[in-house]
Amino acid sequence: PILYSYFRSSCSWRVRIALALKGISYDQVPVSLLKDGGQQFSAEFKEVNPMQQVPALKIDGITLSQSLAIIHYLEDTHPNPRLLPQDPKKKAQVRMIADHIASGIQPLQNQKVLKQMGEKKIEWAQTCIASGFQALEQILQQTAGRYCVGDEVSMADLCLAPQVANAERFKVEMGPYPTITRINKALLELEAFKVSHPSRQPDTPAELRA
């Protein structure tokens, strides 16, 4: 497999965690979202992903984009360890939390949107993340065990940790979100989350390396 990734992309990090958890070795092709005006806009990368976004994963003779679609494919083809519970209610909760982050928070504060916001970009990102986290904290108080849904790592957790990293980067005050903070701390202790962390990627700048 070949993963097209950017060290700081939270969507790429979700996929790196999934690959690490499932023990799938892969080659990484860094795609800088900043260098050369954004390498994702190159004609070469547009051939890989017409949406000109990371991540993209070449695997089993196909190329997949969209982090959750990639994770679903990895779940179907490498079912252990499970990232979606078998219980229908828990499975729905995992998908709900993953979608809440992947559709309801992350796209509002991604680089493309922030560019449009100009000088107000930090304020905008903080507002979007805080609004999403208020709802997420309330949801997690109902669903969480050690992790987002019960005591097993799931697709929801793969979305949570990268989003908390975004929140910290934009200096969002995390005090109001004790459940999110507690789960994130537990996740960052896991080896799969450590090896896939933005501070430990081939394209991580020296000053940001762990």
From TrEMBL:
Q: Where is the GST C-terminal domain?
A: 87-206
UniProt xrefs under Pfam families: GST_C_3, GST_N_2
E.C. code: 2.5.1.18, 5.2.1.2
For this protein, the record's SUPFAM superfamilies field holds: GST C-terminal domain-like (SSF47616), Thioredoxin-like (SSF52833)
Gene3D superfamilies, sorted: 1.20.1050.10, Glutaredoxin (3.40.30.10)
Q: Which reaction does it catalyse?
A: RX + glutathione = an S-substituted glutathione + a halide anion + H(+); 4-maleylacetoacetate = 4-fumarylacetoacetate
Question: Example GO molecular function term?
Answer: maleylacetoacetate isomerase activity
Q: In which pathway does it act?
A: Amino-acid degradation; L-phenylalanine degradation; acetoacetate and fumarate from L-phenylalanine: step 5/6
- Recite the UniProt keywords alphabetically: Cytoplasm, Isomerase, Phenylalanine catabolism, Transferase, Tyrosine catabolism
Q: Which residue numbers delimit the GST N-terminal domain?
A: 1-82
Cofactor(s) demanded: glutathione
**PROSITE patterns associated with the record:** GST_CTER, GST_NTER
Q: What is its main location?
A: cytoplasm
InterPro entries per UniProt: Glutathione-S-Trfase_C-like, Glutathione-S-Trfase_C_sf, Glutathione_S-Trfase, Glutathione_S-Trfase_N, GST_C, GST_Zeta, GST_Zeta_C, GST_Zeta_N
Q: Which GO terms describe its cellular component?
A: mitochondrion
> Organism's domain of life?
Eukaryota
Compartments (UniProt record): Cytoplasm
Q: Which GO terms describe its biological process?
A: glutathione metabolic process; L-phenylalanine catabolic process; L-tyrosine catabolic process
Per the record, the similarity remark reads: Belongs to the GST superfamily. Zeta family.
What name goes with this protein?
Maleylacetoacetate isomerase
| Native species | Cochlearius cochlearius (Boat-billed heron)
